[in-house]
Design brief:
By secondary structure, chain A is an alpha+beta fold. Chain A has three helices and four strands, in the order E-H-E-E-H-E-H. In chain B, helix 11 (287-293) links the parallel strand 10 (275-282) and strand 11. Classes of the chains: A alpha+beta, B alpha/beta. Chain A binds chain B through residues 12-14, 16-18, 21, 24, 44, 46-50, 52-53, 55, 57-59, 90, and chain B through 78, 81-82, 85-86, 89-92, 118, 121-122, 124-127, 129-130, 133, 136-137, 311, 316, 318-319, 322.
């Protein structure tokens, strides 16, 4: 299965060390592969450093592409994580 | 380096306390990396294994540090989690293995290549915070290199006597590795008040001085040092008299600190039952907790420049709003005074359309800049007003020189209020609006200004600079920066009198506010509200509790007969001596 969805990063600090770490952690729980892209630049979702280099601040639009068996569940979990602003205190 | 002569260094005080002890200079000489070409496949495979083993050992080491992190540091544990993740990152480990296999070079050199690639990628990031994460990569790489070289984990964990750590810089791994029980304090060449070292030292209640520039060069391992975390002073090879003096100060301080911290949550009331309101100055939302811990009764000055200096882009209304709201909510029901943008002068940002000026202190800065760049100003006012719906927010304009700026500022404020009304956004329509009194002309017309604002806040740092026409950063005239100058004392009194007559609040938020030795003077001059760095609060409250307001007012009459700073200082020292008897 191949899925693609665009998200707006809404947490205060954007994709910084803590939030990027949460994405990497999530990626480790699924079989499928995650790729994130912003402004035409695509990186692997299992690398914290790659995610940091995307430099997503609050308000940035990020496209997630997930390929594999459990892509659906993975995309849902990722959407929830971003939606809940990575559990950061508001 | 002469081992006998006494010398002194001055840095930025990062965590309070006085210590006397032996220096342990942390040798930061990095592992030297040599290029080596591997001849056959067997060697290449062995090299890959050697690298993987070094990474595995690094993981184990960091995991272990994470596990036995002392309690006060637990909150910083995620930094080490990030390190673990970087160790596993394909950009670091996989890429290095690939380089070893493809180019047949040794692990150290291949790792160096990976780090350089990552450094290059990160150097293009605009956001300062994200860009600096490359330090984590470098720290992790150092651990791997250390393992490859077969070196024991740094000498930090082997410290077996009580020492003062002297380092160029300290990474989170360094501080985690230390046997904290043996560390008396830290001093570093780099860093500021909010650096990792400073935060760690405060959390562990160890004295620290940062930003010393040349401490690692000036101090030899094993040298006797005195570190004063209050003033930022380091004395290298102190003589016997100095040692005795500091030991006494240290004992007095420790006794004092533990007794006053216990009392810092109680109100500050003079012997004759005059209460003073003591607030904290902050720059980041994270500092609110520290302020409350030290017994602050509100935030008297929230500086807002950081968001403008941090990014290359101007901060968005949303970003500012969330910062301000966070502070307002945490400090509530206590009040927070948010000062609008005070850039220009010595604080310069590349984001803002500010030109280099011949005379920046007298140039286009603070409120002058805001009144000209209305869009930037309005954005901030919107953010502050919106935050006012979430707590007791007060608004303050800096660098006011006369009535017109107040009227113009308030004019823009009501325009913004109308906008918010139209958009249906909540704010407090009765928000208190005040001004900084830091320009001599504002002192002179304080009675007129008092009719147009809800409160005054006297900024002594700038007031002294402008009134005495001295640039405190200029070493040739810095000696003339005299808070006790009779002119300054008269100005402060003129402002408190004008505020009193108009029935508005007045506070003082410069460095003078945080100096316990000035407490009596300020009470005598009519101040009943002071705002200072959080760590100064317990000491100032203590000073207030041991003075009589009536006596302080009487003293001011005496002090006003004196004609120089020196005489005022002597008078105050005599007073102190009398009180001690």
């Amino acid at each position: 299965m191949k899925l693609e969805k665009t998200f707006t990063i809404r947490n205060k600090l954007g994709l910084h060390a803590r939030s990027a770490a949460k994405i990497v952690e999530l990626a480790g729980r699924f079989e499928s592969c995650l790729y994130l892209s912003k402004d035409g630049c695509e990186v692997e979702g299992n690398s914290i450093l790659s995610i940091l280099t995307l430099a997503c601040i609050k308000g940035a639009e990020v496209t997630a592409r997930i390929e594999g068996q459990d892509a659906r569940e993975f995309m849902d979990s990722l959407g929830e994580l971003i939606e809940q602003k990575f559990g950061e205190p508001q | 380096m002469n081992n006998d002569t006494t010398s002194r260094l001055k840095g930025i005080p990062a965590s309070p306390g006085i210590i006397l002890g032996k220096a342990r200079v942390i040798d930061r000489s990095r592992v030297k990396i040599l290029y080596q070409y591997l001849i056959n496949k067997k060697q290449v495979n062995l090299e890959v294994e050697r690298f993987k083993e070094a990474v595995r050992a690094a993981k184990e080491h960091i995991g272990e540090l994470r596990g036995r992190m002392p309690d006060p540091l637990k909150a910083h544990g995620f930094i080490l989690d990030t390190h673990l993740m970087i160790l596993d990152d394909s950009m670091l480990s996989e890429a290095t293995v690939k380089t070893i296999l493809e180019e047949k070079i040794n692990a150290e050199w291949a790792l160096k290549r990976s780090v350089q690639r990552i450094q290059k990628l990160f150097s293009q990031i605009e956001d300062t915070y994200l860009r600096e994460r490359v330090n984590d990569v470098e720290n992790v790489a150092q651990i791997i290199l250390r393992n490859l070289a077969g070196k024991e984990p740094a000498s930090l964990s082997e410290i077996n006597e009580r020492v003062i750590i002297v380092a160029h810089d300290l990474s989170p791994i360094d501080t985690s590795e230390m046997n904290i029980g043996k560390v008396m304090g830290f001093i570093t060449d780099v860093g500021g008040r909010t650096s990792h070292t400073a935060i760690m030292a405060q959390a562990m209640k160890l004295p620290a001085v940062v930003g010393l520039e040349s401490a690692t060069q000036a101090i030899a391992d094993g040298t006797l040092l005195i570190v004063d975390g209050h003033t930022g002073e380091i004395i290298i090879n102190p003589d016997d008299d100095t040692i005795i003096e500091y030991q006494e100060r240290q004992i007095a301080h420790e006794k004092h600190a533990s007794s006053i911290l216990r009392l810092s949550h109680l109100p500050a009331e003079t012997l004759d039952h005059q209460s003073l309101c003591i607030k904290a100055n902050i720059e980041f939302p994270e500092e609110v907790a520290l302020a409350l811990d030290h017994g602050a009764e509100g935030i008297g000055l929230y500086r807002t420049e950081f968001l403008y200096l941090r990014n290359r882009d101007l901060p968005s209304e949303e970003e500012m709003f969330e910062n301000y709201r966070e502070v307002a909510e945490i400090i509530a029901p206590k009040p927070v005074t948010i000062r609008t943008l005070d850039l220009g002068g010595d604080k310069f940002s590349s984001t803002l359309p500010l030109g280099r000026e011949m005379n920046p202190a007298l140039g286009l800065r603070a409120i002058r800049f805001c009144l000209r760049e209305k869009t930037i100003f309005k954005n901030q006012l919107r953010a502050i007003l919106r935050a006012s719906a979430f707590g007791r927010v007060r608004l303050m304009f800096p660098m006011i020189s006369g009535i017109q700026e107040v009227l113009d500022g308030r004019g823009i404020l009501s325009e913004v209020m109308t906008e918010l009304d139209r958009e249906g956004l909540a704010y407090n329509p009765d928000i208190k609006v005040g001004i900084m009194i830091e320009i001599p002309s504002a002192v002179t017309v304080a009675d007129l200004l008092a009719r147009h604002v809800d409160f005054f806040s006297i900024g002594t740092n700038d007031l002294i600079q402008y009134a005495l026409a001295i640039d405190r950063i200029n070493e040739h005239v810095a000696y003339m920066y005299q808070p006790f100058h009779p002119a300054i004392l008269r100005m402060i009194r003129q402002v408190t009198l004008a505020a009193g007559e108009a029935g508005i609040d007045v506070s003082l938020c410069g460095e003078m506010a945080g100096d316990p030795a000035c407490a009596g003077l300020l009470v005598g001059l009519g101040l009943r509200e002071l705002s200072m760095n959080a760590s100064s609060i317990p000491g100032v409250k203590e000073a207030i509790r041991s003075l009589s307001a009536e006596e302080a007012v009487a003293d001011i009459e005496e002090i006003f007969k004196l004609s120089t700073s020196q005489e005022v200082r002597e008078f105050m020292n005599r007073k102190k001596g009398l009180n001690a008897c």
